[in-house]
């Protein structure tokens, strides 16, 4: 691996999944003494499309099968000390089949659950894209083009 590859940003694909009960699928992480929610998703692998990554990560983290709808946003977060640089690609996905179960062997994953959209604003979610999700859902994701979100490091 070259020095450029080592210092390259991490590309992460995040899935926005909202069911017919107006609930959003989230994954609870615990690192040290902090607990917070993230959208399902993970690292884009070399040679993999965004769609392939979204559906693979959904299966790996939740045991669910999905259908890719579209890419809806992109964001960039850089750690204040410059140690990490993450590009997040947000995708809209629907669930086709399966029952939720934690499939990942990552010890930071505590829970996978649907939470009511009405409670999303009061939850700790990283990156903090709660307003974008609520606005997008309310407007049936009917914005023009790809949204660029401002997501400072949390």
Name its key features.
154 residues, alpha/beta, 4 helices, globular
Class by alpha and beta content: alpha/beta
Strand order of the largest sheet: 4-1-6-5-8
Number of continuous helical runs: 4
| Number of distinct beta strands | 8
First and last CA, distance? 29 Å
Order of helices and strands: HEEEEHEEEHHE
Stretches with pLDDT under 50, minimum 5 residues: none
Based on CA atoms alone, the radius of gyration comes out at: 15 Å
Based on CA inertia axes, which overall geometry fits? globular
Q: What proportion of the residues form beta strands (DSSP E)? A: 35-45%
Average of pLDDT: 90
Could you estimate the helical fraction of the residues in percent?
Answer: 10-25%
Taking the sheet with the most strands, its summary is:
5 strands, mixed
What does this structure look like?
The protein is α/β, with parallel strands linked by helices and 154 residues long. Helix content is 19%, strand content 41%. The protein has helices at residues 3-6, 50-62, 117-120, 130-138; strands spanning 10-16, 23-31, 34-38, 41-43, 65-78, 85-97, 109-116, 147-150. A hairpin with a 2-residue loop joins strand 2 and strand 3 (34-38).
């Amino acid at each position: 691996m070259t020095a450029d590859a080592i210092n390259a940003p991490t590309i992460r694909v995040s899935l926005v999944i909202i069911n017919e009960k107006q609930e959003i699928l989230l994954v609870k992480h615990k690192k040290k003494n902090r607990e917070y929610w993230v959208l399902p998703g993970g690292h884009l692998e070399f040679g993999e499309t965004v769609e392939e990554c979204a559906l693979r990560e959904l299966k790996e983290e939740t045991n669910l099968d999905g259908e890719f709808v579209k890419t809806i946003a992109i964001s960039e977060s850089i750690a204040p000390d410059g140690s990490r640089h993450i590009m997040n690609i947000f995708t809209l996905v629907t669930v086709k089949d399966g029952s939720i179960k934690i499939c990942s062997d990552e010890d930071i994953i505590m829970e996978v659950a649907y939470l009511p959209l009405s409670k999303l604003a009061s939850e700790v979610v990283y990156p903090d894209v709660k307003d974008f999700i609520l606005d997008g859902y309310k407007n049936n994701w009917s914005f023009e083009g790809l949204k660029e979100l401002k997501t400072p490091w949390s």
